[in-house]
Amino acid sequence: MASDILQDVTVDEIPRVLEAMKKDWPQHFLLHQFASILEQYHKENIQNPKQVLYKYGDFEDGVYIVKSTFAIGAESVSLIYPYTTAADYTEFSKVLKETTRIPWTEKFMFEVTARRLMPTIQQVSAAKGCDLGTEEGTILFLPPESDIENKLLPEDVYLGSLDEHHVAEVNKNWPFKYPGSEKYVALEIQNNFGLGLFRKSDNKMLSSSVSFHSGGIFILYSNPNFRSRGYGEVIIREMAKEIRRQGRIPFGNIMTGNIGSTKLFNKMGFKEYSKSVYLFPNKLFDFAVLKH
């Protein structure tokens, strides 16, 4: 059987990927973050999602694909993060055309993808008979040199870690929930972390967020009856502090039209990293899934 154009990056080779992505730091931080978390998952023997890092070409200017396949009930969904540092997309197009690593006829999604790659992905997918829907956004990140303020929590609330007991509520509050998404939320909390802001008097969750397998700030939620009290800002700040503690760069993917979140992240010092897009097969999805 002929080998695929995309070759597995072994665990022993991941440090070379990380070193290559440090060039012009933090320009390529998101691939660096995906790779470092994949390395952590391997050390912790995390099997769901099944994550594989593929590469074509050299470490500095090659084409990368991070494939995270989640088993959700009887189904599986593959989330694909494609990346190249190259300004010319000829090799990127070649890889998409020739690889069998992308499950074009199954449930999959290109996640938090740099929008500059969208035309090439759409061109190749159309040639393969795969009609892709899109949801656009903007990745905002907290630059490494930016400080995170240390502020006291409001007196009537406390900060707590999310666990399996919070999954149903977090999923219920997620605007992009879908059949089976509760299992997905549970896996992200279990494999990564989530934080909640709770009222002391009755332990009611007032605001929350979950960090995904890319190391970002996702499913940001504040109870509509308790907004304009700074709770969302508290959660973003505390999520960012924990992500920094783990040696990563905090970021959020804000969907186009979400003016409130954009203003909040900007207020807290987050800067635009890149325009982003999610792409998914229209015939296989009747909902937009797995997005902030």
From TrEMBL:
<dbReference type="InterPro" id="IPR053225">
    <property type="entry name" value="Acyl-CoA_N-acyltransferase"/>
</dbReference>
<dbReference type="Pfam" id="PF08445">
    <property type="entry name" value="FR47"/>
</dbReference>
<dbReference type="InterPro" id="IPR000182">
    <property type="entry name" value="GNAT_dom"/>
</dbReference>
<dbReference type="InterPro" id="IPR016181">
    <property type="entry name" value="Acyl_CoA_acyltransferase"/>
</dbReference>
<dbReference type="GO" id="GO:0016747">
    <property type="term" value="F:acyltransferase activity, transferring groups other than amino-acyl groups"/>
</dbReference>
<feature type="domain" description="N-acetyltransferase">
    <location>
        <begin position="139"/>
        <end position="292"/>
    </location>
</feature>
<dbReference type="InterPro" id="IPR013653">
    <property type="entry name" value="GCN5-like_dom"/>
</dbReference>
<protein>
    <recommendedName>
        <fullName>N-acetyltransferase domain-containing protein</fullName>
    </recommendedName>
</protein>
